[in-house]
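Worked example (supplementary).
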Amino acid sequence: MVVLENISKIYNEGTPQAFEALSAIDMRVDRGECVILSGVSGSGKSTLLALIAALDKPSNGKIVVKGELISKLPDLHASEYRAKRIGVVFQHFNLLEDLSVEENVIVPLIHSGLPLPTIQEMAAKSMQRAAIGHKAAQSVKELSGGEKQRCAIARALVHEPELILCDEPTANLDKANSLKFIEILEMLHTLGKTIIVATHDPLFEKLSFVSRVIHMEDGVIKT
Amino acid sequence: MPNSKFSNNAFLHFLTLLLFKQKGKHIGAILISVIIIFLLSSVLFISASLQHTLLGTLEKQADFTVSRVEAGRAVNTPLSWLDKIVEINGVSRVTSRIYGRYYFAPREKSFLIVGIDFFDEQNSKALQKLSQGINLKRFLSTPNMLIGKGVQAFLNAHYYKKSFSFKTPQGSFKKVNIYRTLPSQSDLIANDMIIMPIDLAREIFGLGEADATDITFNVPNGAEWDNIIAKLHLLFYDVRVVEKREVRKAYENLYNYKGGLFLILYLIAMVTFMLILYQRYSMVYSTERKEIGILRAVGWSIKDILKLKLYETIIVVFVSFVFGVILAYLYVFVWGAPVLNQIFLGGANLSNHVVFVPVIHFGLLGSIFLFYAVPFLAAVLIPAWKIAVTPPKEAML
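After joint prediction of all chains, the assembly is encoded as:
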């Protein structure tokens, strides 16, 4: 499903401030796997996730997702890849604060060409799955951290992606909300989704549905 | 089907959502835009209206005005010139005029006295409008005059309600009754004007039977104008010739000049506004930056972002434009442009309360729209594009 070959990422390349965030990463995640990228802050796991999400480009190496080389995609194709193939859950939720839960959830489908009623149906289904359907009309500003996270999950699932990427999803949640998030994750795993979670939360390390834990340190994978 | 394409269009739905839910963001831009459009439109409306009125009046006037000068100083024009001018081929409707400024020393104001031959056919058309409903027999039986609104207000304030006594060059006084005021539509040209029979005007100015202020005539064939001027200079060594087209240019220049000053002010205001907008939408504006980053992260392309910003801005520009123009219309044509009218009519001898005739050139409005919309769009779209092309990961920070 996801293949990374010799991936490196250097920030401020060619300047005295150059910093190598990732170095020679080789990794493979198969369809239906739930993989945890663990490591302390600054170990490079979020950067790696951003590269798989085509939110940034690697300095070297190649990333192939479901047979498609995404590490060098032009903007239009990278956007299409994000809009159709993957769902991303961010640490800071990254929601549009002026809008309601439902309005945030439909955002990835605005340019899908689908009619509004279909999009709203898909959003309702996704909100149900993420256990936030009861707050559909509520403004995001009025939600708790856990609710915001579930809204972000609903948005990530609305277009039924095969690959779900979560970046420090429980970093801003209390334990109860973290466990709720893990429940949703398990449900998605049973639905056959491929999941990659970047986290340093120990809660994720001994979960029964987790296929593997990949440990990262200073931009490299530790075996 | 009533539930049409429009209501089912997800993009339009989202655009409307953003406009209403982020109204705080747009109201400021709309308010400033309305003020700028209002100012610019008001100035152009006033300028167009004044030019229309003045040029309309000018159209009815004679093609040429000749008068006598002595060493560059205007003196009385002998009526004997009239007979010589009539004999020039191509000349028609030759007539003499008596007019001049009457100085009211105690208040340092002056009125424009125009003496008219009420039985002259050439004057009849122009007079018809001004003297509608006048009983000529009664009007001419005693010394009477028609006065502009400004004159009326001035005389009223000085207790001359029914008549005014003019001081003649011989030192005697000539009492003239106020017959009635001239219609408001003529305020722009007739505000400080007094119209009276030609002989009465001659008496007040102390003009001899053989003199006039100037002589006017038409030359229907425009190609002959230069020849006629040459002939006039051959006939009279001390003649001063004023062509209608020169007066027209002078009017146009005067109002274009005043309008031009406003355009400069407008440009300064516009540039300032654009800088504010640019700043607002530029990289330093973190909320905007983050919003674009989020949209990019969930799959919107650069094109999608620019489309959203373009539509958003077009709506803001359009709303501002419509409100600005409507406000300007009300301000100029309904309320008479208080403050601004003094800048255009300032320097007038008597304060003038002009009723502006509504004149709107749609080409002009179109130009204002483009002149305003293009820099506005650029000030929003360029920073939005700059944010959109940065990696979403960075934009969301």
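Two points are worth noting when inspecting this output. The two ends of chain A are 21 Å apart (CA to CA). Chain A has a mean pLDDT of 91.
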